Every structure is written in structure tokens, then in C-alpha cells.
Amino acid sequence: MTGGSGLARQTTSKRILITGLSTDWGGRVAQMLERNPEVETVIGLDRRPPKVELQRTEFVEVADSHSLIRRIVEAAEIDTVVDTRLVVDGAVTSPRLAHENNVIGTMNVLAACAGIRKLVFKSSAHYYGVEQDDPAFFTEDMGRSHPPRTRLEKDIHEAESAVADFRERNPDTIVTVLRFANGLGPGRRTSNTRLLDLPAIPAILGFDPRYQFIHDEDMANALEHAVRHDIDGVFNAAADGVLALSEVAGLLGKRLLPVLAPWGTALGAAALRRAGVPLTPENLRMLRFGRALDNRRLKATGFRYRYTTRETVLKLREHQRLASLMQGSGEGYRYERQLEDFLRYSPSVRATNAAPRLPENIAAGGRESAAEVSGPRIAPASSSTQAVSRSKPVSRARSKPAPSAPSPRSAPSRPSAPSPRSAPSPRSAPSPRSAPSPRSAPSPPSPPGYAELDSEEI
Question: Hey, is 325 helix, strand or coil?
């Protein structure tokens, strides 16, 4: 799957599902899509709560099970899935968990996406690997010249192979794969940013590799661009410009420290790891050879990068200089389900005190908001899942109870038989209209919808 379109055309994606909502990219893309009035529904899935504040995105805590995800896709009539779960940093988890997420999890998501209109898959430049005989710039049509060297590279290659197979089995589905370069941004903690945060940047003696970065904002914008436009194929996402590692150190105001020997590098790296220096197998190969991507295909679709590689490094330096001052600025955002429900739906919260009003989610098959439609919104999942962010709950306290039938004691006593003269005329007989209307009878409770399910019911 290496083809790509030219000038992109505007999308008709309306009902969007984001997997990996707790990741930086999943949360940022959800925030962008929330502000788009043409998007009817935004639903996010993850095992952990989101890290950014969301207003109309419905969060469902669910495992990467294709049957559970498929039920949500069908019930909400999802037409676009954005998969942002891929782990691209070997320092954040173990190799076993990374394999389960990147390979097994991707296969489960793809199994649930059969028949959708569009799939956007976030991948990594680790797909190309890092070798001595690499080209100056990798294009999307180039494959690997050598087998994967690390377990993470192998997982990413297998995940993309599964996406390519999905595209062949679903020719009517638009499949967009974005291969991102190393990302940098304020507040983001990866093995690369931790390496660049050191007082002196370690290097391999005799090597000054090329580095190419992409700013966090450009990464989120590229994902949102792929949702808004119909671009089919594989696209490299990397900022303009390439810097040598010595130039990166100079822009950060730091020294380059060649403490690793060109032979036996793994032994020296193990000693640095014990000293707290984050060095993954992917970092070591980048410190030796470096890598750069050709980004012209994505720009041909109309996408524009906000930052170059040099500007991205300068932004990181600005954040590093202010980091010590911002440490005591207060606690960051933390998701709390009860608090989110209160701020969204409580009548006690004034509109002026609440967050800016955004377009409401639209129920499947209609223009009314999901909060105004009775009945289930999303099929209840198994007990292993939990609905954390819900549609507007139905207020039962406000509903007027049906009038109860009068007790026998309160019924009027039967009068004595009147004389013929005092007999009431037929007109004084109670009219049938005075009988209780059938509408006043209590209706049977409707089945619980997605908005009313508690954690034990999901």
C-alpha cells in the first residue's frame, strides 16, 4: 500500500471513532474534531482515561477486543476510524506489551472496521529502519533494504502489513497511513526528549548523524487533515529540514559528549542505562546513522507544516528554559467521570461558567442530538468494559408520575335510592370523558440506553 493521491478532496466523514484516546495524539485530534460543526459524533476508546479536557467526545473504556469495538461501530454507525494506539517508543513499555498493542491490537481494530468508509492509521518512520546504506531521504515507495533490527521495528512492520491486507480486502475503504518522524513538543516525555534534556547529549565517537523532527502540533494537525480530506495511501510526516546531531546540541545550548565507542556500543549503552540515561535500541541506531524522510507527498495534498525541524528544536529549548519555573504552576488535567458529568449536564452549572458551547453529538440516523433521543445509543458491552463518559442522562426526578388510582376508601358512598321525582336526569350521568385517559397509565420502563449504563452494566 504505497500509493497516494494528489490534491485532496474534502471529506464526508461525519461519525468518527478514535482508538487510543488517552494518547497525546488521540486527545488532540478529538479536541480538533469537537470544534467542527460538520462532525456529528466523536467517540473515543481506550483502556485508560483521556489526558486532555474533552467536551463532547464520548469516552468508552474498553479493551482492544474486535467484538466489542465492532458493536460500537455498528450501533453508532461509525464511518471513520482513527487509530492512534501504536507504541513507537521502546522506553514506555515492555517488548511483550508493545507487541500485544501494536500487532494483536491492530488486528483486532482492523477486524472491527470491515465496511467503514475511511481508516486513518498512525504509524512511524521506524518502519524504514536505520542502516548504513540508507538513502538520503526515504520516500513512501521505498521498502526496507534489511530485515527489522529491533523488536519494535518488527512490530511496526507487521502492523503496517496487516493494514495493507485490510486495504486489499476492503477496496472501497479509504486507508490513510501516516509515517511520523521523531516528535518533539513541550511537556512530552519520550526517550528522545529525555536524551535531549540531559546537560550534555551523549554521542558515538566519530558519528554525527542526521536528525529530522516534527512538532507535536503538526502531528495532530496531520491526523486531523487526514480525517477532513480523502487521501488514500501512505504519507511521510516530517518537518522541513534536517539537522546534524551537533547542530541540535548547539541550538539547545548544550555540548555533544562522545562517550560511546564505535565498537562495543551496546556495552557502553548498558552502563549509561544503569546511570539513568534513556537509550533504546532505536536510539542507538539513530545515534550512529540517523534518518530523514521525504515529505512532499503529504504537502501535495494541501497540508502545511507550521514548524521546520530547526524551529521545532528551538521550541524545545524554550520549553527547557521555562520548565524549572513551570514545575510549581499547579496540577495538570486529570479526568474524573463524576466531575465531567456534573460540568456537562448539571442544571446547577451556568452556561457562562461552563466551557464554550460546541456542536452536540448527533444520534445515528437523525439530526437531533444524542441527548434528545430515547433508547440505547451504543450496544452494552460485556462486563469487562466500562462506559466512563456518557450521553446526557435521562432525568427521572423531573418526570411527573402517573396519577395513582383512588383507593376504595376514598370513593364516594353510594347514595340512597331517590324518589322518582328526584332521580337525576340522564344528562347528569358522568360523561365517559371524565374517565382517566389511557395515556395517564404508567408506561413500562424502556431498556437502559448507553447514557444510563453504570460501570457494572457495561
Answer: helix
